[in-house]
Design goal:
With 120 residues, the chain is an all-beta fold. The protein is built from no helices and 10 strands.
Length: 120
């Protein structure tokens, strides 16, 4: 994977990209929280933020993304528990959150994701 050197945070204004269907920012030096406004990006199918320095809680608003098929946040510094709202929609095929500082258990709502092929 080619790594960029992007740093800073994801701006809340990212939600203005209404037609965006893939947001892939892996292998950078991005920090801070993932803004809750990301849940307004109704066409988002792929959300991949691996190998950065994101922290804080995973926003439950991601559960608003009804088209989301790929959700991958591995190798960051996320804390708290996995929001059960992420599993609101049944299109999720890939779910990867390993190598974070998450606590608690995997929500039982994950069983609703009939198409889930990869979970790490």
């Amino acid at each position: 994977m080619n790594k960029n050197e992007f740093s800073g945070t994801i701006p809340t204004e990212i939600a203005k990209l209404k037609k965006l269907n893939t947001l892939e920012l892996s292998g950078n030096k991005l920090t801070g929280n993932v803004p809750s406004t990301i849940g307004l990006m109704q066409n988002l199918e792929v959300l991949v933020l691996n190998q950065n320095r994101f922290s804080g809680k995973i926003p439950s608003e991601i559960g608003n993304l009804s088209r989301l098929c790929t959700f991958s946040l591995y190798s960051n510094r996320f804390t708290g528990s996995i929001p059960p709202d992420i599993f609101n929609h049944h299109k999720l095929e890939t779910f990867s959150i390993s190598n974070n500082k998450l606590t608690g258990s995997i929500p039982s709502e994950i069983a609703q994701c009939d198409h889930l092929r990869m979970c790490t």
